[in-house]
Design goal:
By secondary structure, this protein is an all-alpha fold. About 55% of the residues lie in helices and about 0% in strands.
Length: about 80
Amino acid sequence: MSQKNFALSTTNLIICGIAILLIIVGFLLMTGPSSSFENGFEPDIFSARRIKAAPLVCLAGFVLMIVGILYPSKVRAKGDNQ
């Protein structure tokens, strides 16, 4: 079988997978009850978890995704001598 050259190595894919999980966790932290008119005002929409923690977790996931894409691969092509 011929070996395919992928743009990202296994390490890059693992880092990107962790980043995707962080982004999903961040969005899940943002969920909660909505403030609808028939139920009255819901003060939980201004909780620290939804306003501070969740966006920071999402931001960390997006930054880690950039790191995962740009992380240098240790394997070089056969033609590279440098």
